[in-house]
Amino acid sequence: MKYQFKRYALALLTACAVVAPSFGAAIVSTSGGAVYPQFKQAGIGAVPVTVNAKLAETISAKDFGVIANGVTDSTATLNAFLTAAANRTAFLPAGSYYFTGILNVPANTRVVGEGYATRLYPVNASGNTMTMKSNSSLENLRMEGSTPGGVMISGGASNVMIDKVFFKGVDQSVWLHDTTQVTVQNSVFDTVKYGVIQQLGKVSNHVKVLNNTARNMTGDFVEANCASSAPSEDWIISGNQFLGSAGFPTVATEARFVGVTAVKNVTITNNIVKNVAGDAAVHLEDTRGRVTVSGNQFSNSVGTNYLYLLHSEKDVIVSNNWFVQDDLTLPTITMIGMNSNVYTNAVTIIGNHFVGNANMTVTAIGAETHTNIKIVGNTFESLKIGISGSSTKNVIINSNEFDNVNRCVVSATDGPSGGGFNDVTMNGNRFNCNADAVYLRRNTSGSAPSERWTVTGNYFGADATGNDTVDFLVTGNTVAAGKTMNFGGSQYAGSVRYFQSNNLQIGSGLVP
């Protein structure tokens, strides 16, 4: 009887092998009398695989006896587990994985947790917490501990992803060191020093920092310190929220949203940045390719600048951003600053909205020669000074709206020292200012005058005056009743070749 039952069971299992299963059903095959359970997915073209092979696609830390109680040091068992999971998915079930050494993620390996319930708990007095190789990822877990170093991506690693990871208490959360094609996305950085940092003097190309949240930062959220002789290339920083520096509003040198040196082609778009205590919200230095800063919202900075361009050589586009200072008690800042000692070329500031308090300046341009600056189609509201500049040439100031600004366009005395705001086209602007629409002065008799201005088709709701100007053409403008427009005054040597014609003063006819 027992023998007959075994024969019947074997025949039944064999028959099942030819029956198409539903999704997730098991089938079996036989070979030489042995029985091998198999699995077949639903859908046309699916082929059966053994259950063992299916289960081996993902390896669990529990398979290697890793203890996740937050107390036991699991460095060795975690590394044994990760080594075995090479080229597959390494699954970390919910728990607190305490470790004191370095975890090494092999190439071609996904490390996946169960969200916030999976905690990597590093305690390491020095060095990094984890290294990652090419084609690897860290996903859907928390890294919270006490360590100066977090995830290190180095040694030429490429195509590495950090996705849905919560970092806390990790000073350098993601550390880049000679790598390419790295994506950090959908993650949270809370009470850490640096979010994504490029090691000083190293190169990391094609880096994407997307849709993350940073708060209580003590250092820069994104920082790249590259050498001019070996710049990094192609960084995209988009869709992130920077919700505040630790210790705000106490000013720190760092604690910026972005601090970048010697990176070619930087794109910063659609971010929300507020309560920044660093010396700038975005600090861009020695950029060698195109820089795009577009669609961002900046508010409540207490540093010197919102956007600081230091030796940004060419092709800088600042467009469609909101620069807002909600807190009227915060000190004077410059919304867009260009360094006073180095050269900047080809900057376009277009379609932005600048609004603040009486202590704010939008652009400070000085005191070496900057060229090809376009300021077009912006709105300036409730500011101390709209545009200030000196030692600058080839400037276009067109189609901007100034409202409740104390002085709209300033050169020399109230701007950076040196004088000389030259080759300027100013057309189609509307100046509703409290003091001066345009105010041009030389600081000293030895400083250079402003030269070669074309001023046409503007509305001046406040005085527009200039001393010691050279080659000015002022025509076709409209001046509010009781206001003065005269760029031909003399403070030191006097104005030269000043032409004023066909300008209309409201209620008084042509301006004399």
Overview of this protein structure:
The chain is mostly beta strands. It is 6% helix and 52% strand. It has an 18-stranded parallel barrel. It is elongated. The model is unreliable at 1-24 and 413-418 (pLDDT under 50).
Q: In terms of topology, how is this protein built?
A:
Layout: H1 2-16, E1 26-31, E2 34-39, E3 49-50, H2 51-55, E4 58-60, H3 75-84, E5 89-91, E6 95-99, E7 103-105, E8 110-112, E9 118-122, E10 130-132, E11 137-154, E12 158-177, E13 179-185, E14 188-190, E15 194-198, E16 204-210, E17 213-215, E18 222-225, E19 232-238, E20 241-242, E21 258-261, E22 263-269, E23 272-276, E24 280-285, E25 291-294, E26 297-301, E27 305-310, E28 316-319, E29 322-324, E30 333-338, E31 345-350, E32 353-355, E33 360-365, E34 370-376, E35 379-381, E36 385-389, E37 392-398, E38 401-411, E39 421-427, E40 430-440, E41 451-456, E42 459-460, E43 463-467, E44 470-475, E45 478-479, E46 485-489, E47 496-501, E48 504-505, E49 509-510
Parallel strand pairs: 4-5, 5-8, 6-9, 7-10, 8-11, 9-11, 10-11, 11-12, 12-13, 12-14, 12-15, 13-16, 14-17, 15-18, 16-19, 17-20, 18-21, 19-22, 20-23, 21-24, 22-25, 23-26, 24-27, 25-28, 26-29, 27-30, 28-31, 29-32, 30-33, 31-34, 32-35, 33-36, 34-37, 35-38, 36-38, 37-39, 38-40, 39-41, 40-42, 40-43, ...
Antiparallel strand pairs: 1-2, 2-3, 48-49
Overview in brief:
The protein has 512 residues and is mainly beta.
Distance between the termini: 123 Å
Largest sheet: 18 strands, parallel, barrel
Q: How much helix is in the residues?
A: under 10%
Low-confidence stretches: 1-24, 413-418
Number of helices: 3
Shape: elongated
Number of strands: 49
What structural class do you assign from the helix and strand content? Answer: mainly beta
In round numbers, the mean pLDDT is: 82
Radius of gyration: 32 Å
Q: What amount of the residues lies in strands?
A: over 45%
